[in-house]
Amino acid sequence: MKLKYIKIGLLTVLSFAFLACNDFLDVNDNPNAPTDENLGLNVKLPAALNSSASYEATQLNQIGGLWGGYWGTSNEGVGSFSSLKNYNGPAIRDTRDGIPVWESTFTTLFYYKQILDQATAESSLFYAGIAKIMMAYHFFILVDFYNNVPFEEALRGSVYLQPAYEPGQEVYTKSMDFITEGIADIKAASIVPGNDDILFGGDRDSWVRFGNTLKLRALLRQSEVSGREGYINQEIAKINQEGSGFLSDNAAVNPGYLNTSGKLNPFYESFYRNNAGVAVNNYAIIRPTQYLIEKYKEYNDPRLAQNYVAVSGDYKGVVFGENTVADEYAALNTSAFKGPVENGNSPAGILKAFNQSTVIMSLSEAYFLQAEAAERGWISTNSTTLYNSGIQASFNYLFNVNNYDISSYVAQAAVSLDAATNRIERIITQKWLALNGINNIEAWHDQRRLGYPDFPNSVTSPTPGAYPRRFMYPETELNTNNANATSQGDVGVLTGSVWWDND
Fold first, then answer.
1. N or C: which end of the chain has fewer CB within 10 A?
2. How far apart are CA 503 and CA 499, in angstroms?
């Protein structure tokens, strides 16, 4: 890894924190010269959490939107996102024009490592626990994209300029242990964060439940890997023994978004409108896929009209990867995102307001994770109850209410879990619909793991019928840690895979 790059990235994270977290600007030190020495944990923590949320809402949502069956492009975007639409691994990993998942993740990890080190030195157990849980969250992301990655020798600065790689399975196991340690730290802490915890406001139970839910997600990732049953049962037993359960609300960050450039909700500003109320370029070029529109219609799903704009009384999508300019794919002839402007200045579904919170993990996903775990016999709660709760949470969030009436929706034979011949596929399909535009990246992970939903791959894929399985190691890593990176074997986008993907 390039240490210089990470240090520059860290200053970027810090600078963004000073810009975006308006409530945390009131400090005595010069905010234009942020250094490790003049920043307390109460400033570093919101900066790191804000970075994690922005990353989930923008970069990961973009990749997952295109590789998870949700998004394609209108005529106006024919040349946009070409590396993702064409599964072009070398272009994705390019230093100049690529998609810096590796660099972004390690930069944020480095910041959490600084928080952990400072919290340990200051005996601030709650902050240390948060850092451990969030480091695990980001290490999971790295493995999900790249498989084998540095862990023990990572984030050590000049001590290891070429850190050794560890198998993805081992990194997963160590990250699970990190969460266990983080939960223990938080439960034992006497000093609790306040408003600087922009995720849970210092709520001990919420952090523990979030950690348990991250664990369950990670365990389900490996559900199809033979020989992991014993480990999974052991970890489920730890969650049960801890006893706090899983998320009871959305895990969502809000540092105090403002209607000022660079300070709006990042998804809103990246994919909808800027601070002047002008539609951004992505709003004109990103469109739902025909497959997504068809699924909404198949289930008579009112979320379609809550999330997208009708065109001449109907909803129109595009074909993912289609680079032929045709009238039917023009922006005017396809359904755009629906936001407040298109919804009578009221909050819509995915897009509510410039200051809406950024969801890192939704309550809906938490229920669907539990529903799948129950269906596999890992937990004892009724899977149908959990499945319906996942749908309920999705409708509540998208329609901005506390108890949307889903009875007629779940009674449909095509939706009812009890009417399904393949119950796990049905759970994953509803999870896919619920996470649309919120945590898109989970759809790509589920498709690789299970093959559900069976959305079409890119029509411009270099290998017909092949889906992307991973990212290639970036050029920044090949240039600075080549021996370790190149020793990892076949890392092709279509031919390589991560350890939990047995396709």
1. C
2. 10
Backbone angles phi, psi at 337, to 5 degrees: -60, 145
Statement: residue 5 has pLDDT above 60 = no
The model's pLDDT over 318-347, given as tens digits with 9 standing for 90+, comes to: 999 977 789 999 999 999 999 999 999 999
d(CA 466, CA 239): 37
Residue 103 and residue 36 share a domain? yes
Check residue 8 and give its pLDDT: 38
Structure tokens at 8: 């520059």
Residue 217 CA to residue 353 CA, distance in Å, equals 29
- List, in sequence order, every residue forming a beta bridge with 73; answer none if it has no partner: 286
Look up residue 402 and give its DSSP letter.
S
Question: ∠ at Cα 441 (438, 442), nearest 5°?
Answer: 90
Average pLDDT of the segment spanning 452-463: 93
200 and 291, same domain (yes or no): no
CATH number at residue 231: 1.25.40.390
Per-residue pLDDT band for 35 (boundaries 50, 70, 90) equals: very low
Backbone angles phi, psi at 88, to 5 degrees: -90, 90
Q: Pick from 495, 494, 482, 473: which is nearest to 95 by CA? A: 473
* pLDDT on residue 37: 59
Give 112's contacts (C-beta < 8 A, 6+ positions apart): 48, 131, 134, 135, 138
Q: Where are the beta strands (DSSP E) in 216-348?
A: 251-253, 286-288
Rounded to an integer, what distance in angstroms lies between the CA atom of residue 425 and that of residue 359? 24
User: 171: domain range?
Assistant: 1-72+86-247+469-503
The model carries a pTM of 0.94
Looking at the domain assignment, is residue 306 inside a domain? yes
**Per the domain annotation, does 377 fall within a domain?**
no
User: For residue 306, how many other CB atoms are within 10 A of its CB?
Assistant: 17
Task: Please list the residues that pair with 252 across neighbouring strands.
Answer: 359
Residue 9: the pLDDT is 46
DSSP 8-class letter at 158: G
Q: To which H or E segment does residue 401 belong?
A: none
Phi-psi region of 170 (alpha: psi -120 to 50; beta: other; left: phi over 0): alpha
Residue 36 confidence (pLDDT) above 90: no
- Cα 456–chain centre separation: 21
For residue 288, what are the β-bridge partners?
A: 71
What tokens does 81 get?
């996102």
Q: How far is CA 285 from CA 73, 84, 99, 250, 333, in A?
A: 5, 14, 19, 29, 12
Distance between CA atoms of residues 468 and 385, nearest Å: 34
pLDDT in tens, 229-281: 999 999 999 999 999 999 999 999 999 999 999 999 999 999 999 999 999 99
